[in-house]
Design a protein that fits this description.
The complex is a heterodimer of chains A (552) and B (105). By secondary structure, chain A is α+β, with helices and mostly antiparallel strands. Chain A contains 18 helices and 21 strands. Chain A has 4 domains: 6-109, Sulfite Reductase Hemoprotein, domain 2 (Alpha-Beta Complex), CATH 3.90.480.20; 134-291, Sulfite Reductase Hemoprotein, domain 1 (2-Layer Sandwich); 306-398, Alpha-Beta Complex (Sulfite Reductase Hemoprotein, domain 2), CATH 3.90.480; 413-549, 2-Layer Sandwich (Sulfite Reductase Hemoprotein, domain 1). Chain A has helices at 6-27, 33-42, 65-78, 101-109, 142-153, 226-240, 251-258, 260-276, 283-291, 306-314, 316-325, 353-366, 389-398, 429-438, 442-448, 510-524, 532-539, 542-549, and strands spanning 45-47, 52-56, 62-64, 82-85, 91-96, 127-128, 168-171, 185-191, 197-203, 216-222, 326-328, 334-339, 350-352, 370-373, 379-385, 413-414, 453-456, 470-477, 480-487, 499-500, 505-506. Chain A is globular. In chain B, strand 4 (62-71) and strand 5 form a beta hairpin. In chain B, strands 3-2-1-4-5 form a 5-stranded antiparallel beta sheet. Chain B has one domain (9-92). The chains are: A alpha+beta (552), B alpha+beta (105). The interface between A and B is medium-sized, with 31 and 29 residues.
């Protein structure tokens, strides 16, 4: 893991001191809310329905056990004993008191964490593949360049007041587990014909009220020139992005209006200037950062591992959990465990301080002290020996997180929705809970197969409903919560935007409607091997529309 | 719950220092409980509440000030689900909810 140098420590400490003073000035009335609001947002502090909410950055989803212990301590001391993992690999506290924020931030800084740039019109926390560094299919560990981007974008003076927020996501593998094409800039690490590592740059993706799958702007940028290219991308946006209308201010609108080819041309035109400015990082500095991500020394373990094979044979429940929740590891004899924060009927992404401490303890005991956060609101132990998987599974059972449902119908993304969020139009979490309970039977889940349901409580789409195989969007219809269904979205390397099926459903009818969609799929699939999204792409929306609304 | 057009309104906000949801009371204080809110029944009274809210905002006591609809009747009850949730807490964590009225003293 990256460890702060003196510069990181200094700027973090100085920012805590600066914002602490701003909080004091706000509390004694020296700053008005209009003056304070942009300052608190730059420090990740929102006002929600019931209290302030603090969004803590988890850079590229990587946490140490020590950091997770601290996050748990903070949940107990400053919140109501729990926290929420988000779709941007961040962590949110829901019940924060403004007067306690300085102390909270100081505690975060003590474990090299902060809430900088988790809001505001700046470059937000960089997200990445949760299996970075351990996936066998990656070209390069995306955390190296993610950290380079984090350092470059932190307090970047030119990009602190962009037309709108700006989000990066990276994948080091052709298999996209980071939804890169739904980000302002998505980066895929690739190899060219000469075997050199470089970066394919997608620009102008996003969700929200105008969902766009990012076009490929540049198929290969060399590592030595990446930052100057990204700076050129941002500078074109900063110059020409719309500031007159916040709904048209994201880079996706600029790229769409100019056309990807013209946008790419303008970036090329800008690039010599950013290149000449010397923004590119020397190879020695990249090497310094890379050294923090050198793989740990793994034990040499021959597969198959007899005890692991025996444990699966003895417990079919364990074998099923392995099937869904353990990802192949590049080191023989190891696995990457995804801990489902989606217990049946539970709140997606929520964890109590006790659960967070327990996961941190598991990371220390079984995963070389490391934890990852996924954009699907789960948590990963990236380095677990296969001999230890059974013990990990049993211990997860003790904290209620042993569900073997990763990638299945109950592995639902849900934003906080109207239960917490001041922007929401409808509740998301209760819909997720009802669907999870309805589809909870594990045999049924396995029969249905891979299926991603994603729920947003408003058009801002924090619940990624546009990228759901089944997307659910909550709307307010004359004061009543209604839910629209979209089908066919995907956030992987075959990214697509879900299509609206028809009129929405009342809260009491949405589970039945989703059940009809699922049953329609089960009826029409060619074989159990044909997944929901494959079947949808083969047949289109018509059979599903007919099942919900009848023939028209 | 259907939204009802209401002439009865109360003043709500969040307390600056801790973000708590609060309601303006007949005593001129801010209460955690919607049932203790001062109720306006005419447009003039609602306007007066809005003015009080604006003054409290300017005085840095509260933020996110709004005059909201409540149902007519003896018990003060918000009509819109957003405000129902604000008055008590998340519907998915009822263990953390506060009552709509203060506990018996």
């Amino acid at each position: 893991m990256y460890i702060y140098d003196q510069f990181d420590h200094t700027i973090t400490r100085e920012r805590v001191a600066e914002f602490s003073q701003q909080v004091v000035r706000r509390l004694i009335g020296e700053l008005s809310e209009d003056q304070f609001r942009p300052l608190r947002l730059m420090n990740g502090l929102y006002l929600q329905l019931h209290a302030y909410m603090l969004r803590v950055a988890v850079p590229y989803g990587t946490l140490s056990s020590k950091q997770l212990h601290k996050l748990a301590d903070i949940a107990k001391k400053y919140d109501r004993d729990y926290a929420h993992f988000t779709t941007r690999q961040n962590l949110q506290y829901n019940w924060i008191k403004l007067e306690q924020v300085p102390d909270l931030l100081a505690e975060l800084a003590s474990v090299e964490m902060h809430a900088n740039q988790t809001s505001g019109n700046c470059i937000r926390n960089v997200t990445a593949d949760q299996f970075a560094g351990v996936a066998g299919d990656e070209v390069e560990d995306p955390r190296i360049i993610s950290e380079v981007i984090r350092q470059w974008s932190t307090f970047h003076p030119e990009f602190s007041f962009l037309p709108r927020k700006f989000k990066f996501a990276l994948t080091g593998a052709a298999k996209d587990r980071a939804a890169i094409q739904f980000h302002d800039i998505g980066i895929q690490i690739v190899k060219n014909d000469a075997g050199e590592i470089g970066y394919a740059i997608y620009v102008g993706g996003g969700m929200g009220r105008t969902p766009v799958v990012a076009p490929l702007i540049k198929p290969f940028v060399a590592r030595s020139e990446l930052l100057s290219y990204l700076e050129a991308c941002l500078r074109v946006y900063n110059l020409h992005g719309r500031r007159d209308n916040m709904y048209k201010a994201r880079i996706k609108i600029l790229v769409r209006d100019l056309g990807p080819a013209e946008y790419a041309r303008q970036v090329e035109e800008m690039w010599p200037m950013t290149r000449a400015a010397g923004v590119d990082v020397p190879a020695s500095e990249v090497a310094r950062i890379e050294a923090f991500f050198v793989p740990p020394v793994y034990e040499k373990i021959a597969e198959p591992v007899a005890s692991f094979v025996a444990a699966k044979a003895k417990s079919s429940a364990f074998a099923r959990w392995v099937e869904t929740n353990v990802h192949p590891h590049k080191a023989a004899g190891y696995g990457a465990v995804t801990i489902s924060l989606k217990p049946i009927g539970g709140i997606p992404g929520d964890a109590s301080s006790a659960q967070m401490h327990a996961i941190a303890d598991l990371a220390d005991a079984y995963s070389l002290g490391e934890v990852r956060v996924t954009h699907v609101q789960n948590v990963v132990l990236p380095n677990v020996k296969q001999t230890d998987l059974f013990a990990v599974w049993q211990k997860l059972g003790e904290i209620g997180f042993a569900d073997g449902n990763i990638g299945l119908v109950t592995d639902i993304i849900a934003c906080p929705g109207l239960d917490y969020c001041s922007l929401a139009n409808a509740r998301s979490i209760p819909v997720a809970q009802k669907l999870s309970t309805w589809f909870g039977d594990l045999d049924r889940q396995h029969n249905i197969g891979p299926l991603q349901i994603k729920i947003s409580g408003c058009i801002n789409a924090c619940g990624h409903h546009h990228a759901g195989h089944i997307g659910i969007l909550g709307v307010d219809k004359a004061g009543v919560e209604f839910y629209q269904i979209t089908l066919g979205g995907a956030g992987d390397e075959k990214a697509s935007i879900g299509q609206l099926l028809g009129p929405g459903f009342a809260g009491e009818d949405i589970v039945g409607a989703v059940d009809k969609v699922v049953n329609t799929y089960l009826d029409l699939r060619q074989s159990p091997a044909e997944t929901f999204i494959e079947a949808y792409r083969r047949v289109g929306p018509t059979p599903f529309k007919e099942s919900l609304y009848g023939r028209r | 719950m259907a939204q009802v057009k209401s002439q009865t309104k109360v003043l709500t906000a969040n307390r600056l220092r801790n973000g708590e949801t609060v309601y303006y009371t007949p005593a001129g204080t801010w209460s955690l409980y919607v049932t203790e809110a001062k109720v306006s029944t005419t447009p003039e009274e609602a306007e007066a509440l809005a003015k009080i809210g604006a003054d409290a905002y300017a005085a840095n006591q509260v933020i996110d000030v709004a005059v909201i609809d409540v149902a007519p009747g003896s018990e003060v009850k918000p009509t819109h689900i957003r405000e129902v949730i604000r008055a008590t807490g998340p519907t998915v964590r009822t263990d953390l909810n506060k009552p709509v009225a203060p506990p018996q003293r």
